[in-house]
Amino acid sequence: MTIRLSSANRWAAVPDATADVATRLGWYAAVAGWAPSKHNSQPWRFLLHDETLEFWTDPTRMLPETDPHRREMVISCGAAIHLACVAARALGHQPRVAVSADATGEFLAQLEEAGTWGTTEDDRRLLDAIPLRRTDRGPLDREQLPPALPFQLQSAAAAEGASLRLVSTAGDRSSLAALVERADRLLVQRGQVDAELARWLREPGDSRQDGVPSDHTRGPGASYRAEFVQRDFSSTRSRPAQDRPGPDDPVIGILCTPADQQPDWLAAGRALAAVLLRATAAGANASYLNQPVEESAMRHQLREQFALDGVPQLVLRIGVGGEVLPTPRRHPGSTIARV
Description:
Helices cover 35% and strands 17% of the residues.
């Protein structure tokens, strides 16, 4: 079997047919490290046993001001689990994930191979999409997307135990825009939130392999003039690389889960990764409008106002965007430990 990987890929070499289970699991963990995470904090640890791969949170990377219950941290780890599963299927092995019964601890889940998998062209396409996925805060255009893609994204979320509510009418988009703006104002009024974000901004030349490059933004003016207020990641020294002309009319989706406990957060993360990879494979970029889900009162209002059949976990904007450089990634040696 041949796996086609993009030149943007920087993970370890793909195991060959003679590789043992532990080698394959190590590669799955390296691929998992490309998952999306809040402020690119990459808040995960992978423990590698002879026949199982464990997923743990890294509490030193928690964001207490905007994620005090570590909900978004667990969502990020759920996304990492999904990427490991994509890697396993692309290599011809069926992944089986067992979620921890402890809903509060750092240990989240373990993955093992449960037999062979008939790898498809779609499996390879999704693997190829992993290093090409981009968070794009600039203009995104839904008109250039395949017409069926929004429904495919809903199916991808449903397959992981979540739902993606599309916000499509002009009235609903206006209501959501107002909610995002109010939530953004509330967050800005809390000075600790800006201080927390500043710790994860990376100026040009910064060698740290996490955080958000300060030019991965529209800049404050364009961010606040957009249909949906964008969180601004600029600094006084940065150049807003994502401030560009073009239509800004993205697909908007609210990702929901049936309940709001740790297993639901893991499901949300797996669904998020499934949605983002499917969008990337179709040529789209994505970013987030998560301000309302970071304020508890606004999160409740979001659910009530849109009569959501579930608990809102994330708000996404998806469309064809521009050229965006990848965010830095931690070396697998700093996230994977062999037990």
